[in-house]
Specification:
The structure holds 2 protein chains of 2 kinds. Chain A has 12 helices and 19 strands. Chain A is an alpha/beta fold. Chain A has 2 domains: about 220 residues, FAD/NAD(P)-binding domain (3-Layer(bba) Sandwich); about 170 residues. By secondary structure, chain B is mainly alpha-helical. Chain B folds into 2 domains: about 35 residues, no CATH class; about 120 residues, no CATH class. Helices cover about 55% and strands about 5% of the residues of chain B. Chain B contains 9 helices and 1 strand, in the order αααααααααβ. In chain B, helix 4 crosses helix 5 and helix 4 packs across helix 8. Classes of the chains: A alpha/beta, B mainly alpha. At the A-B interface, helix 2, helix 7, strand 12 and helix 10 of A face helix 3, helix 5, helix 7, helix 8 and strand 1 of B.
């Protein structure tokens, strides 16, 4: 029997897969979306309004199950008793690394992918970022500049709805913003203190977030329950289930197949094209094939690269579209966790009402106007202010009526600045297929080699110094600088390994996320990134995906594909 | 948050195409049916004497006042679950040894056990334990927490995450509906993100 045939196959249904599906379907293509994991029904699976007393362990989580089945995923703050079901089972999804150089690979395999529990922070890149490799010589030059992607940022932002404040900063271009969320009392104090002492150079603003502050596109404004990573029945934050996949479905051209573990891309040597994909059915383990005129890999940074590495042919013995030899190399993740904590005195008669699922942002200020003597590139801060919660009563002396009274009050206003730093692209940070390991579906697994370089360590240290400076300037007490020892991967901004570039000899993808070697094969998730900047990357992946989909369909219409 | 308020807050959402197939009552129930706890399994680690001792200590830590105390939060059931399914073996042993020690201290104060000790004797025992726990914490900040620290932690945590405690003491609202960034602090108004 002939394999089922489509105009386009999209591998993955998350942040980028949803965008590829929407854009390809809306441009007239009969599109098959293959998702490795299970379907998600918001009415059944979202748990944001389940009160703690209805959770078996009241939010503690099932310790033994986590240690057995999610020994990697549990390192992520969002993998808790409520939302742990949106993270993979680590026994079914193995990968290997040198124990002395851990990489925490945090993954979501279900319809919606990690867009269900992503951090929702949205920051455009600027030419400071797209020029970076050309300027200092790390990595290869980006084949695009801000002007190439700006209209696609507009396109994506207008559709999904981004709340935020316009600042007019060249290093962090403004977007199409819905009204910003409000800063709380402590954040306003720190904002004013920074403005006074670092006028023009450093700025504190509310986070730019893919969360609605007013009704938008048939979706309701945020109701401030707080934990978006548990799902959102009102679709008030962006995920593919509530936003892009419904748009794709509305065209009547979408076929979404869950439980479809893509093993590899089928390469037609005679026609020098991708012919489709090989799939293992996630439930029956049956081997299947699907055919299409074009293939978009949107399976997440390392899954897309893994699929290419597993697609070896005579012409491409080290992985499909790897004539350059750089496939798998130049893995990056943001260096996270230098910063400072402090206490903001006063305002003890004030608190917040509602959980704002968003924090503050301090845009990059290092190596923007003047070069820093110690390191390349830069970092931004996230974080925010808040009063101590009810849990602190447990560590106070005493018991009885007095302890109960302490429960009713809140602690002083604390404040944290938490840095996210750019990671240099380096060939030695890489992935390859581990010849001795397969996953639960028999697909060869990855071996990951990744560690921070001196430049990232210097950024982390500088975050602790500059973070403390800003808190001191804002009048904070008990200012404590820190540098957390987070392994790469845990920031969940892993990117690179199938980079874009101008030269087919040194890059896998061209300026349109199209494989130099295989013209009807596109990779539009984080694997495509040639550098990491320091901004949260998802909005850039979305814009690149929409841009690549438009290009692919135009090429097909011109009969070039 | 009652159903009528929920309906008001979600008014816009109910009118949206994605959710129009769900009534407000169904929205309220979203995700909850699957997670409502089944009938109690009975105690698996604590014997009746230990369960009663736990309940008395918990109620002394968080007593009933104008709001319910730990007894209303059914702490022994929660602690038994943690001991049976969550706690590592050495933590379980330490906790049960701690309960036995509470009885030993009651006997030293010439009561039959903690359960039958007078209120004054019970308070004296907990006061001594609390002081020892504070001392132990000062002596070695990274050491294993004292039994009474454990007991206090699970009591506070179990109470605040119980329906009785979260509702009466923390005024839990599943759907705040708005964000007030700098409101007068009159009382807790906790939301899902606080748990």
């Amino acid at each position: 029997m002939a394999a089922p045939s489509f105009d386009a196959i999209v591998v993955g249904s998350g942040i980028t897969g949803g965008w590829a599906a929407k854009e390809l379907c809306e441009r007239g293509l009969k599109t098959l979306v293959l998702e490795a994991g299970r379907p998600i029904d918001p009415a059944r699976d979202y748990v944001e309004h389940v009160p703690p007393w209805e959770m078996k362990f009241r939010g503690f989580g099932d310790r033994k199950a986590l240690e057995r089945d999610q020994f990697i995923q549990r390192h992520c703050y969002a993998c808790n008793e409520y939302s742990g079901k949106f993270f993979v089972n680590d026994r079914d999804n193995p990968y290997t690394f040198d124990p002395a150089k851990p990489f925490h690979w945090i993954r979501g395999r279900q319809v919606g992918g990690k867009s269900i529990m992503w951090g929702r922070q949205v920051y455009r890149w600027s030419d400071l970022d797209f020029d970076a490799n050309a300027r200092d010589g790390f990595g290869v030059d980006w084949p695009i500049r801000y002007a190439d992607i700006a209209p696609w940022y507009d396109h994506v932002e207008e559709f999904i709805g981004i709340s935020g404040e316009a600042l007019g900063l060249p290093q962090l271009p403004d977007g199409k913003f819905l009204p910003p969320m409000a800063l709380n009392c402590a954040e306003q104090v720190v904002k004013d203190g920074i403005a006074k002492h670092f006028a023009g150079e450093r700025v504190l603003t509310i986070g730019r977030a893919a969360i609605l502050t007013q009704a938008h596109g048939g979706r309701a404004a945020c109701h401030y329950c707080g934990p978006c990573e548990r799902g959102c029945i009102t679709h008030s934050y962006f995920n593919s289930i509530g936003v892009t996949l419904p748009a794709a479905r509305a065209t009547g051209r979408l076929t979404l197949r869950p439980y479809s573990v893509v093993h590899s891309v089928i390469y037609d040597e005679q026609r020098d094209r991708a012919a489709g994909v090989r799939v293992i059915d996630g439930q029956t383990r049956e081997a299947l094939e699907f055919r299409a005129r074009i293939v978009f890999l949107c399976a997440s940074t390392l899954e897309s690269t893994r699929i290419l590495l597993n697609s070896k042919t005579r012409r491409f013995p080290t992985g499909l579209a790897n004539s350059s030899g750089v496939l798998g190399h130049n893995l990056m993740d943001h260096a996270m966790g230098g910063g400072a904590n402090g206490t903001i005195p006063g305002m003890e008669d004030r608190s917040v009402h509602g959980n704002r699922p968003n924090g503050i942002y301090v845009p990059r200020f290092r190596n923007v106007k003047t070069p820093h003597p110690a390191f390349l590139r830069g970092y931004g801060f996230q974080g925010g202010g808040g009063r101590g919660g009810w849990g602190r009563a447990a560590s106070q002396p005493g018991f009885g009526v007095e302890l109960k009274r302490a429960l009713r009050t809140q602690g002083p206003w604390g404040f944290s600045l938490y840095g996210f730093g750019e990671c240099l692209p380096r060939p030695t940070n890489s992935v390859e297929i581990d010849p001795d390991k397969v996953d639960a579906w028999g697909v060869p697994a990855l071996r990951i080699h990744c560690e921070w370089s001196d430049n990232e360590r210097k950024l982390l240290h500088d975050m602790s110094v500059s973070g403390a400076e800003m808190l001191e300037a804002a009048g904070a007490k008990d200012v404590t600088p820190f540098v957390d020892d987070n392994p790469p991967g845990l920031t969940i901004h892993e990117m690179g390994t199938a980079r874009m570039g101008r030269d087919p000899k040194t890059s896998v993808l061209n300026a349109h996320n199209q494989c130099h070697d295989v013209k009807n094969l596109f990779v539009t998730d984080g694997a495509c990134m040639a550098s990491s900047a320091c901004q949260n990357p998802s909005i850039t992946y979305m814009a690149l995906t929409a841009r690549a989909a438009a290009y692919a369909v135009e090429s097909m219409n011109r009969r070039e594909l | 948050m009652n159903r009528r308020e929920l309906c008001r807050v979600l008014g816009a959402a109910v009118a949206s195409p994605a959710l129009s197939r769900l009534s407000a009552n169904e929205l309220w129930a979203v995700g909850r049916r699957a997670h409502a706890r089944g009938p109690g399994l009975g105690f698996r680690v604590l014997d009746p004497h230990q369960a009663e001792t736990v309940e008395i200590i918990a109620e002394l830590i968080i007593p009933e006042t104008d709001t319910p105390g730990a007894r209303a939060a059914r702490l022994p059931e929660f602690i038994d679950l943690l001991l049976a399914e969550w706690a590592p073996d050495d933590d379980r042993k330490q906790f049960l040894d701690g309960l036995a020690d509470v009885d030993a201290r009651a006997r030293a104060a010439s009561a039959a056990d903690f359960r039958s000790a007078s209120e004054a004797q019970r308070v004296a025992i907990l006061t001594a334990l609390d002081a020892e726990a504070q001392e132990a914490r000062k002596a070695k900040a990274d050491g294993k927490p004292h039994f009474f620290d454990h007991m206090k932690f699970v009591t506070v945590y179990g109470y605040c995450t119980s329906e009785a405690g979260a509702t009466a003491e923390l005024h839990y609202e599943a759907i705040p509906g708005a964000f007030e960034p700098c409101a007068p602090m009159d009382r807790w108004r906790a939301a899902p993100g606080d748990f």
